[in-house]
Amino acid sequence: MNWFKRRKWSSRGFVAVAAAPSLVGVMRTSQELVTALGANETVLLQMRLTVLPTAVFWSCCTVGCFFGCLGLLQWSESRRVFESISASDRHVMTALCRVSEANRIVYSSKAIMLFVATIGLMASLLLNEPRWIGFVIMVVGIRWWLWVRISTPPFILFLSSSDTQSVEMHWHTKRLVSPLRVVTLLDLVNSPTSGVSDELLLDCLRTGNDDDWWKVITILIELAPLVVINADTESPGVVKEALHLISEDITYKTVFLTHGDACLLRREPEPAASASDCLVASGNTLRNIIAATLNSGKLPDRIHTVRFLALRVHSGRKFE
């Protein structure tokens, strides 16, 4: 089946599962409310004792189930594409997140989740009301999603300078292959909107110093099965990345993306002198390569390179 069609139906299935607690919660809360209105005690007291805990429990279960399903969707699709993701790779990705600027948000989110779970557990024990355990269920779902989100290796590594066009390209590519990851080290200050910045926050592993930056780049290049580099920029960082890709013979899985004249590959004296084997492609060709890779279930390697795949896509033949 076409990967994008399978993703659509998988997403709908997970949404249906995530919506189930919400429907059950509405039914149970309505029953409690009807009971409260017909009871002899005051309605306010009855609502506080029965209706509120029920509403909180099922609301928390809905949120926890929603994020749990999001994490399960990313986990299952990533396993399907990568075939297997080792514990060491997940550990490396988690470590890269720790040295990135995104770690501040991740760290504070973990602290808040721990606080909320503790409050829920204490309320459940002290008030002898098990429905307050819904806070713990919610935190477990969110924590699982966050772990999958930051520990999954990227399907695409996008290398470029931190201009608005590059941030938009990252956003569009992420939307194209979601729930798979597209990782960059761009500066999100140049995001076109705050919504785009928030959506890309956990996928921008930008570091605070140059030493960490180069270590993160080389590790991500090794982990990502597909590397996309912006060939329309000549910033020092992108030039260093391009020279590394060419000198280490990693061009078999690298697409040099261009919307103009690919000035990066026309530099003198390098990397122009050794760029003859590089695949230079437009945005439309890149999308076709991504689609063919996902539909075939085969990642680029030194035999089936991205150039080989692009020729197959152009000729209309399957990737075998």
Task: Report what the structure shows.
With 320 residues, this protein is mainly alpha-helical. It has helices spanning 3-37, 43-82, 87-98, 103-126, 134-151, 164-177, 194-200, 210-223, 236-247, 283-296, 306-315; strands spanning 156-159, 182-183, 226-230, 254-257, 279-281. It has 2 domains: 3-151, no CATH class; 156-315, Rossmann fold (3-Layer(aba) Sandwich). It contains 11 helices and 5 strands. Strands 2-1-3-4-5 form a 5-stranded parallel β-sheet, sandwiched between helices. Helix 2 (43-82) packs parallel to helix 5. The longest helix has 40 residues, at 43-82. The protein is elongated and about 75 Å long. It starts with a helix and ends in a 5-residue tail after the last helix. The model has no long low-confidence stretch (mean pLDDT 84).
Low-confidence runs: none
The mean pLDDT is: 84
Q: What is Rg?
A: 24 Å
Helix/strand structural class: mainly alpha
Total count of strands: 5
The level 1 CATH classification of the largest domain is Alpha Beta
CATH T-level fold name of the largest domain: Rossmann fold
Helix tally equals 11
Shape-level CATH architecture of the largest domain: 3-Layer(aba) Sandwich
Specify the overall morphology: elongated
What count of structural domains? 2
Separation of the first and last Cα atoms: 16 Å
Strand order of the largest sheet: 2-1-3-4-5
Residues in helix, %:
55-70%
Strand content: 5-15%
Largest sheet: 5 strands, parallel
Please write the string of helix (H) and strand (E) elements: HHHHHEHEHHEHEEHH
